[in-house]
Amino acid sequence: MTRAATRLSWLATLLIAAGCATTGSDGNDPASVPTWTTRAIPEARGEIRTLPDGKREALRYAGWAKTDFGRFRTYAYTDTRGEVPVQRATMPAGVTGDPRKGRALFLARAKGPCTGCHLIPGDDVWPAGNVGPDLSTIADRRLTDDYLYQQIYDPRLVFPQTSMPPWGATGALTPEEIVHVVAFLQTLKGPLPPEKDADRNPRPAPSPRASATTSIPRTIPPCSWPRARRPSGMRRGRRARPAPTAMPAVRPPP
Ligand code: HEC
């Protein structure tokens, strides 16, 4: 480095140091952060207001339930309430499940918004979440009504760490309503018609080389991949090194 350049770099270091010194020792003065107000509309902030009679009501989009589902513990770190106890449930006798009512309940945002996590067939089911498994053909698994009833009433009996809320145990769905949902789920059989809209296909997106207009089958075809061929350049010449079979030994630090 030339002498002039050395002097310049020293000057820069001094200037930076002087600049930092004015904003506190760690350069992280909270007073310097401009005050911030959220631009989210009230319905999206998850706010709860207290009514004159003392009841709590959630601020929601028009048509959404205003029920405060506060009985089911949220995943917020600050929510220190205990969980609703896990409940074993038996399907009530004497109630005949109505699949049409069950489907409406499955989609009802004011009830258990199942489509928030699960996909089922239908043009009106969109957007659907994928936190839970795709239930489009769950009836093909031939699960018993009792099992499905328990899964919806309180899935924690089978999946202790599940993120699916216990709809029956919290009272979000009544036993009768759950019977209707079970009747609906038992109608969901494959094979499904091919999905018309590529954007709605739950299968992995096609490679960018595939045309965007090709229709993608909703069922995975049987595995019939062509056998991998060696690239032509590798036919002659040096042999490719075989893939290592074991992890190389870890050497102790010097
Ligand atoms: C917050 C997300 C979420 C919501 C909302 C939700 N589920 Fe689930 N559900 C899951 C997850 C995750 C699983 C997979 C179980 C697991 O491993 O946790 C599941 C599994 C299931 C299963 C399959 C159980 C099995 O044994 O394969 C059924 C049936 C089901 N849910 C029904 C419903 C119904 C009906 C509703 C609406 C009343 C609903 N779910 C709402 C997340 C959700």
Task: Walk me through what this model shows.
Strand 1 (48-50) and strand 2 (56-58) form a beta hairpin. The protein is mainly α and 254 residues long. The longest helix has 19 residues, at 3-21. Residues 14-25 and 233-237 have low confidence and may be disordered. The chain has a two-stranded antiparallel ribbon. Helix 2 (99-107) crosses helix 4 and helix 3 crosses helix 4 (175-185). Among the domains are: 43-82, no CATH class; 99-185, Orthogonal Bundle (Cytochrome Bc1 Complex, Chain D, domain 2), CATH 1.10.760.10. It contains four helices and two strands, in the order H-E-E-H-H-H.
CATH class membership of the domain at 99-185:
Mainly Alpha
Contiguous runs where pLDDT drops below 50 for at least 5 residues: 14-25, 233-237
Mind summarizing the main beta sheet?
A: 2 strands, antiparallel
H-E string: HEEHHH
How many alpha or pi helices? 4
What is the rounded distance between the termini?
Answer: 35 Å
> What would the principal axes of the Cα set say about the shape?
globular
Q: What molecules are bound to this protein?
A: heme C
Percent of sequence in beta strands: under 5%
Radius of gyration: 29 Å
Annotated CATH architecture of the domain at 99-185: Orthogonal Bundle
- The SS-based structural class is mainly alpha
Mean pLDDT reading: 76
Helix content: 10-25%
